[in-house]
Amino acid sequence: MLCKAYFMLCANLKKGVIMIKTDFFATGMPSALSISLLEFGTNLQTARKRRKLSLQQVADKLNIGVRSIADAEKGKPTTAVSTYFGLLWVYGMLDGIKDVANPLKDIEGMRLDAVRKKKPVKSEYDNDF
């Protein structure tokens, strides 16, 4: 279940209020990351429930504890990445992950790379005496 603060935050975002200074999980974590993790966890929980799987059934398939599944569904940042990937695999949703951080779709990275690869233009005259 999502915390009340998350719903208040979403309501404020819809109103255009951008005064987000609180962090729900860890000191120093950007609020956008906290929100993304909460949404991702909620999506994972919805996927599990639509498949009518219990926390124990999913935990057994991944050979991990029920607590890890529950933590992932809460969007806890300390949950292992392998747990998140495992959940996507169990729910048959792993295919979409191949585009995450795909270097061919990283427009900003390619732009920065191109800027760094530009060679300085050599002068016609050599000032070396």
Descriptors for this entry?
mainly alpha, 129 residues, 6 helices, 0% strand
Walkthrough of the structure:
This protein is mostly helical. Helices cover 53% and strands 0% of the residues. Residues 17-21 have low confidence and may be disordered.
Tally of extended strands? 0
Class based on secondary structure composition and strand pairing: mainly alpha
| Helix-residue proportion | 40-55%
Q: Estimate what percentage of residues fall within beta strands.
A: under 5%
Shape: elongated
Distance between the termini: 75 Å
The SSE order reads HHHHHH
User: Helix tally?
Assistant: 6
The Rg value, from CA coordinates, equals 22 Å
Question: Residue-averaged pLDDT, rounded?
Answer: 82
Largest sheet properties = none
Instruction: Return residue spans where pLDDT drops below 50 for at least 5 consecutive residues.
Output: 17-21
Short description:
By secondary structure, the chain is mostly helical. It is built from six helices and no strands.
Helices and strands in order:
Layout: H1 4-14, H2 31-50, H3 55-62, H4 66-74, H5 81-90, H6 107-117
